[in-house]
Amino acid sequence: MGMLHARRMFFCHLRRYSKIKFCCSRKSSYLCSHFMNARYFYKNAIAAFLRQNEDEIFGMLSMNDEYDTMATQKFAWLDEIRLLKSTLQPYANEEGWVVFEYTIPRLGKRIDVVVLLRERVFILEFKAGEVTFNRQDVDQVMDYALDLKNFHQGSANRMIVPILVATESPSYSTTVMTSHYDDGVYEPLMTNAEGLSRVFELVLQQEVETRQEAVSLADWVKSRYAPTPTIIEAASALYSRHSVEEITRHEAEGEQLDRTTDYVLKVIHDTKARGGKSICFVTGVPGAGKTLVGLNVAIKQSDHEAGENPDLAVYLSGNGPLVQVLTEALARDKKRQKNEQGEKYNITDARREVSQFIQIIHRYRDNMLQKLRTPVCDGIIEIDPEKELKDKRAGYAEVENIAIFDEAQRSWDKEHLASWLKRKKGINDFPMSEGEFLIWSLDQRKDWAVIVCLVGGGQEINTGEAGISEWVRAMNETFPDWQVYISSQLTAKEYAEGKVEELLRDNPNVIYSDDLHLAVSMRSFRAESLSNMVHSLLDGDVKSVQEHYAKIRDRYPIVLIRDVEKAKQWLRSKARGNERYGLVVSSKAYRLKPLAIDVRCKPDTVHWFLDDIDDVRSSLFLEDAASEFDIQGLELDWTCLIWDGDLHYVDGQWDYYEFNGGTRWNRINKEERKLYQLNAYRVLLTRARQGMVICVPEGTTKDSTRLPEFYDGTYEYLKQMGFEEI
Q1: I want to staple 152 with a disulfide (CB 3.0 to 4.6 A). Which of 78, 148, 417, 553 is the partner?
Q2: Torsions phi, psi of 254, nearest 5?
Q3: Is residue 721 classed as helix, strand or coil in its secondary structure?
Q4: Cα separation of 626 and 605, whole Å?
């Protein structure tokens, strides 16, 4: 009977809401303005909120609900309104504000209620009907608090108070304390509905330092939100149709990502208009967002809402873990959003939808290989009409007009691809490199095609990677009619040894543009100069490292330790809310096995990056370690890099080694392989967004493969940088 009454009451309120919606044009501009704000569903001064009719507040919330929230949530709003009116009554004569459903684009979520009072930001997460305080809910409200503290200008210097309200719990917090980080964020407070007023009293009784704020409480909701999302968070936000500006920290970041994206989209538009073929080369400093540009273009071009026949784009990467993790993250997010909107949506369908525009490059390549006439004769590849039907638009190509190749410099050279095809596919004498074949694949189209190459410098970590010069050679020799749009920075030393300009000198179809270069790093919001510091560290430039680290040490802690278990404890102590941490090691770190770290046991990257601490496969469990191949292109908040004897510092230089699998380390002499080893540690040292611990084991004289001399030189070298020892 109670449930039936509740339903009747709910639909009664909906009928009242419809009247409010109908007469909106006759209401004040104040009311109408609330119906149009994307950042929140409702905002009002505390005094006005207390005077306003419950039905009117409910109507405003419902009208602003673009997501068509489930009826159960809308019914919960009524209880929240009543509870807040009771809680805030003592503050009716004070300046303060109430905000419902405030959007956090980086997390793709909304805060139930924000109360702004006495220079404090109260974050309220309601769990209607709950009798217990679940850990995931505590983490959720703490995530909101940290997000505002770190990324929201109006919250940066204010006290942030996260409160979890399990309405039917028998207890509530009776003590309040700020975090041991001393950053103005309270430890999460937990309360039932009746205790919320008392929790407010306890917090407001404490003295706080009065500061001159750049943003007033009245303007708090308009304050710039400036995040630096992980690639997973950024991809999820873009997939949910948030703009680039909403998911970047600084205006410069948003502007450069927009500028580069717009330039690429213009190339696509112009190429389609003239019915031609074009290739774009996009460069950027480490962490500047090259992958983000690629995903942004792919999502915009393949948006199923763009029309019945959008010009499809596919984002391709040879980085298997990145593709797997992004695909699963977007699929899970898609399913969650659909379920929250009351729709039944299968995770399999979500994965299928995402995989339409994110694919592993080898699958795309192999689809084209299956169409070829075999054996290959006279060094010429051609389509076998018996294997593939010709399409009037696509010819024998895949369905997409646009292919975006991430980390294009890592595509295989001719020798490596030919050897692999001979061994794995039985195709002999293959005449092309991987880059050349991928261009050839798009060249099969009869209408138009665009290739976008996202190019990183100094990131080659594997044998057979051809570098960008192979793409340039293919354009010059095999596809001279293609228009080439190239970043003006592609002529720098780290790309094709600085020979790109020379290689393209005689190509008449080249257009250089600064808009194809991303110059601002957005990877670490605490350490924007981290990549420069790591570069100096690996170059042996101690003074430069010290100078860089002096600038970031207060915001980005780096500590040294020799005990793995203590390193794990440090990681656990640093992370708050749902911040992620994990162990990272070189793929050649074979003698960490006595420390229970076996690089031959590969982590399940999807579970390692996405699942919580209850899953033993999660990075948070600190059992499985990720190598440079597992984590390149991805990141964690905190990392522990465990340094093995494969790269150790001796007499002022690096020595490079590879374990023979049984009794000893063998010295690496080939310069190419030395570069791969150095770049492996470059990747590992730049995966943490907020800080890291570097653990260099002590070794032992009882094991000739783990002698102290393999580790001590490295530890002493790192000590010179000024990193804290613990």
Answers
A1: 148
A2: -60, -40
A3: coil
A4: 8
Please name which of 89, 629, 638 lies closest in space to residue 410, comparing C-alpha atoms: 629
Residue in this structure with the two tokens 């149709």, named with its chain if needed: 241
Residue 600, CB half-sphere, CA atoms under 13 Å: how many? 5
Residues contacting residue 343 through CB under 8 Å, at least 6 positions apart: none
Handedness of CA 151, 155, 159, 162 (dihedral sign): negative
Strands 653-659 and 665-667: antiparallel
Give the integer Cα–Cα distance in Å for 265 and 133: 48
604: CB partners within 8 A, 6+ apart: 617, 624
Residue 598's closest CA among 587, 613, 606? 587
Cα separation, 595 vs 644, in Å, equals 11
* Per-residue pLDDT tens over the stretch 263-302: 999 999 999 999 999 999 998 876 677 888 888 888 788 6
Helix (H) or strand (E) holding 137: helix 135-151
The Cβ of residue 701 has, within 10 Å, a number of other Cβ atoms equal to 9
Burial of 105 (0-12, 13-18, 19+ CB in 10 A): buried
Q: What angle do CA 322, 328, 330 make, to 5 degrees?
A: 95
Helix 231-239 to helix 290-302 angle (10° resolution) is 20
Neighbouring C-beta atoms of residue 142, cutoff 10 Å: 24
What SS3 class is residue 77? Answer: helix
For the sheet containing 159-166, what is the strand order? 42-45, 96-104, 109-117, 120-127, 159-166, 189-191
Distance of alpha carbon 155 from alpha carbon 226, whole angstroms: 11
- CB count within 10 Å of CB 689 equals 24
> Averaged in consecutive runs of 10 residues, what is the pLDDT profile of the chain (726 residues)?
39 39 33 51 94 90 66 77 95 94 75 94 93 88 87 86 92 77 85 93 84 78 70 69 51 71 94 96 79 84 56 85 88 83 84 82 87 91 90 86 89 90 91 94 94 75 67 91 88 62 84 87 59 90 93 90 96 88 97 94 93 93 95 90 96 94 94 89 91 96 96 96 92
Please, what's the b/e burial string for 76-89 (b: 16 or more CB within 10 A of its CB; e: otherwise)? bbbebbebbbebbe
Task: Provide the b/e sequence for 8-26 (b: ≥16 CB within 10 Å).
Answer: eeeeebeebbeebeeebee
Whether residue 373 contacts residue 384, with contact meaning beta carbons closer than 8 Å, is answered with yes
Count of other CB atoms within 10 angstroms of residue 660: 11
Q: How far apart are CA 457 and CA 534, in angstroms?
A: 14
d(CA 566, CA 483): 56
Q: Is 486 exposed, middle or buried (0-12, 13-18, 19+ CB in 10 A)?
A: buried
State the alpha helices, DSSP H only, in 23-114. 29-34, 46-51, 54-63, 71-88
For strand 109-117 and strand 96-104, is the pairing parallel, antiparallel, or unpaired?
antiparallel
Q: Residue 350 corresponds to which amino acid?
A: A
Residue count (the chain): 726
Cis amide prior to 557 (ω within 30 degrees): no
688 neighbors 639 (Cβ within 8 angstroms): yes
> Residue 389 CB: number of other CB atoms within 10 A?
6
Q: Say which DSSP state 90 is in.
A: G
Name the β-bridge partners of 146: none
Q: How many CB atoms lie within 10 A of CB 422?
A: 13
Distance CA 298, CA 239 (A): 10
What is the rounded distance in angstroms from the CA atom of residue 655 to the CA atom of residue 650? 7
Query: Taking Cα atoms as reference points, which of 169, 166, 114 lies closest to residue 145?
Result: 114
Asked if 340 contacts 357 with a C-beta cutoff of 8 angstroms, the reply is no
